[in-house]
């Protein structure tokens, strides 16, 4: 079915195209009777003004672009929600591109942002993107990195101290007397994962009697976590880690279920620390100790920083903001007997 256009509305209402335009966009310029007639015709035909085209003709799209690594992770969903809070307050909308742990998809989203002429881009990168970031900026599209930093020092960012977060998680387990630690995560090439591992290694290095095993997964889903938990449960107790630092809560919640289904008590036999402190962490079968990241606040702050750059009101400094971690302690590391 052909979409109704402004010419169709004009014919239905028996007026000129310019009168339709005035009635819908500048109603003060025509009589109330004409406005009502035009709107009635538009409603009958299902006519929707092409707002994007109108905005582009005015030199702006009203859109911010935002890429995230994996929207299925509630951490990134919360980050998007924070960006939408700030954008909505400024009368703008956010076009979200979900990379799904795929650098090809990530680049496709950035190319789309360029084509639709977003006014600015928020980028939570999965892979190296310097050429694309330079390309966007070269076309006058300001960029702010979220949950990442620019090693070149040219792009402003809102990030999290993941080295400190990984160290805090491992120190919590070591303070509880755990010595056979393991770091469980996916994609060491992802900066956040790599830095969390580095922090855990720093903590373990201070304890000569402690060790850190590395367990890599293909993705960080709860289903994969459960499978790895069952594999760990099948090990002999002496060969099994007694403390796990897990790169995100989705994976950690699955691991806890896998361990329990395999007859391992959490935390009596194996204590588990997750990362992000998503809402489900507190609601898990064994409430999960987790390193908290203020995802919504980070998204909101990044969008506000981007909006200031679009408006030309940002200060001369880049605005590199780094949030510090805190650990939220729950039963997965402190329960009396475990489950």
Automatic annotation (TrEMBL):
The keyword Transcription regulation applies. It comes from the Bacteria. Keywords: DNA-binding, Transcription, Transcription regulation. Pfam families: LacI, Peripla_BP_3. Residues 4-58 form the HTH lacI-type domain. PANTHER family: HTH-TYPE TRANSCRIPTIONAL REGULATOR GALS, LACI-RELATED TRANSCRIPTIONAL REPRESSOR. This is LacI family transcriptional regulator. It comes from Microbacterium salsuginis.
């Amino acid at each position: 079915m052909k979409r109704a256009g402004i010419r169709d509305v004009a014919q239905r209402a028996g007026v000129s195209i310019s009168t339709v335009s005035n009635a819908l966009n500048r109603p003060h310029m025509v009589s109330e009777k004409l406005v009502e007639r035009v709107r009635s015709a538009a409603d009958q035909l299902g006519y929707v003004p092409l707002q994007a085209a109108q905005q582009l003709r005015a030199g702006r799209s009203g859109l911010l672009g935002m890429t995230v690594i994996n929207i299925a992770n509630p951490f990134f969903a919360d980050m998007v929600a924070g960006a939408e809070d700030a954008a909505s307050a400024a009368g703008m909308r956010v076009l979200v591109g979900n990379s799904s742990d795929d650098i090809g998809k990530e680049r496709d989203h950035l190319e789309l942002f360029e084509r639709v002429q977003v006014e600015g881009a928020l980028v939570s990168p999965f892979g190296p993107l310097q050429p694309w970031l330079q390309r966007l900026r070269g076309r006058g599209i300001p960029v702010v990195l979220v949950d990442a930093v620019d090693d070149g020092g040219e792009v402003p960012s809102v990030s999290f101290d993941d080295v400190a977060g990984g160290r805090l998680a491992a120190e919590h387990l070591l303070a509880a007397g755990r010595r056979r630690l393991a770091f469980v995560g996916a994609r060491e090439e992802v900066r956040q994962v790599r830095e969390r591992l580095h922090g855990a290694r720093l903590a373990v290095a201070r304890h000569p009697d402690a060790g850190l095993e590395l367990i890599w997964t293909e993705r960080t889903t709860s289903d994969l976590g459960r499978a790895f938990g069952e594999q760990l449960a099948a090990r002999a107790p002496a060969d099994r880690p007694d403390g796990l630092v897990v790169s995100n809560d989705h994976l950690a919640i699955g691991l806890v279920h896998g361990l329990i289904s395999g007859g391992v008590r959490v935390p009596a036999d194996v204590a588990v620390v997750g990362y992000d402190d998503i809402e489900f962490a507190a609601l898990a079968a064994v409430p999960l100790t987790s390193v908290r990241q203020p995802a919504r606040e980070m998204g909101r702050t990044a969008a506000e920083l981007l909006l200031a750059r679009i408006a030309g009101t940002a200060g001369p400094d880049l605005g590199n903001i780094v949030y510090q971690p805190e650990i939220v302690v729950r039963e997965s590391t402190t329960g009396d007997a475990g489950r």
